[in-house]
Amino acid sequence: MKRVIRLSIKTKDRQGMTLDILRILNNFSVDLRSLEVKPGMIYAKMYDDLYIDLKRLKEKLLEQRDVLEIKEIELLPQEEKEKYMKTVLNATDEGIIAIDKYGKVTIVNQAVQKILKIKEGVGKPISEVIASDFPILDTIKTGKSYDHVEFALKNKNSSCQYMTSGRPIWDEEGKVIGAVATIKDMQSVMDLVYSFTNPSMTTFDEIIGESEKIKKVIEMAKIISKGDSTVMIRGESGTGKELFARSIHMASPRKDRPFVAVNCAALPDSLLESELFGYEEGAFTGAKKGGKQGLFKYADQGTIFLDEIGELSTHLQVKLLRVLQENKIRRVGGVDEIPIDVRVVTATNRNLEKLIEIGQFREDLYYRLNVIPITIPPLRERKEDIPILCEYYIQKLNRKLNKKVEKISSKAIEKLMEYHWPGNIRELVNIIERAINLCDGKIIEKKHIILQEQDHIFLMNTFKEKEKSLLLKEVVAEAEKKAIIKALREHKSIRKAAKALGVSHATVINKMKNYKITNG
Question: PAS domain location, by residue (predicted)?
Fold first, then answer.
């Protein structure tokens, strides 16, 4: 087996230095495989077939004029970069594959191999590794990005469905020299959109407040939870719409049956339809053998929560109306009507009445969904609840953060009371969690309360005061999280927020999951 030798050679920076080193290596008959040259440094990787005298080689190199130091190293700088990149690429569950301008694969991470069940494909045409109609090939030709595109990969026995987004890679002259794509299997996409959860711990006890406004809403929600009529929960982002939906379910006779939460803005129309209503075998390319029952059927005798109902397409609005009228569903590609018994709870932060006026939301569906309207007041209209909310979340977050903060000072409370709270309860929780992390003692003081407009100044001062070296990924993650929260506040829907951020709404959904951001 060949021995691999890697040397770092520190030298003076002069003309002809590299040539002198190469002459010495050649005299020792080394099989040189890689050479990296930087001012004052030469890195060499070689194979030794004859088991050369490494000690003598080093001595000879040191005898060379202007050679200052020689070390054996584990990896050349470029190898270290490649290893780092490979580690980063393989650290994600999202499949990543890249090609050059000729369509040959240059990068394949482990997730792609697992998702597509393929072996290493570097150097092969992507048409052989994946498929000749893989969307990234069009990106090479057109230079255009694509988002959230479905494609099917067929083999001898089955056909599986995936979702991909792609971006071109440009050189300095603006020419396309390659492209990179992300790939997810449909199941992982589904995991981002809805969750099957056991909401046994989610009750009205978790809705905190003593103000008359919130007490009236809670009391009404408790009363209507006993029935089966549809409920529409209105409120700004961050007010806790899903918390109310889960609490209503847990206080209802359906509490021992499934609660299914679905984000209507998170998937393209065709995919959302098949997920909600199910599909028959062979209904479309990549449909599972035996078909799929759908979320309405899964929620049978339970509750289905349709979040961001204002984002539902007119096509799906018609299908949902039919379900509400007849208590039956029809799978995609099917003819039979399947009876279901499901309570429907919806939520939105959009003005549905305005959408009806401009023809984007059906009036008949609106009246079917809006049998029992519940409007959650924003935090700025119930500021008297801030002290008790702080107390509750301090205790809750203490357990999460393994801290022992006991209370919040009156000055800190005053600062919170003066704030306008565009992000509502979600923003309050964020601020309290940050304050607990900053608090060295047992009392949160005014200085620990960093509000939205202070975020940038706070971050800069934190870096200066603590002289702390943060990992790049931590800085990027914090910036991403703040950008997403800001976009969601301004644009109300995930799709519009994604458009404003210049990314796909699937990417926003994924980031929201990673950073534990909700839009309820």
Answer: 81-116
Q: How far apart are CA 6 and CA 425, in angstroms?
A: 57
pTM: 0.54
Distance CA 428, CA 420 (A): 11
DSSP 226-277: TS-S-EEEE--TTS-HHHHHHHHHHTSTTTTS-EEEEETTSS-HHHHHHHHH
Ramachandran assignment for 32, one of left (phi > 0), alpha (psi -120 to 50 degrees), beta (any other): beta
Domain locations along the chain: 3-76, 92-189, 198-377, 382-514
Residues 6+ apart with CB under 8 A from 151: 131, 133, 134, 135, 161, 162, 163, 164
pLDDT over threshold 80, residue 282: no
Strands 95-100, 31-38: parallel, antiparallel or unpaired by DSSP?
A: unpaired
Please determine, for residue 389, whether its predicted confidence score (pLDDT) is greater than 90.
yes
**Which of these CATH numbers, 3.40.50.1950, 3.30.450.20, 1.10.10.10, 3.40.640.10, describes 92-189?**
3.30.450.20
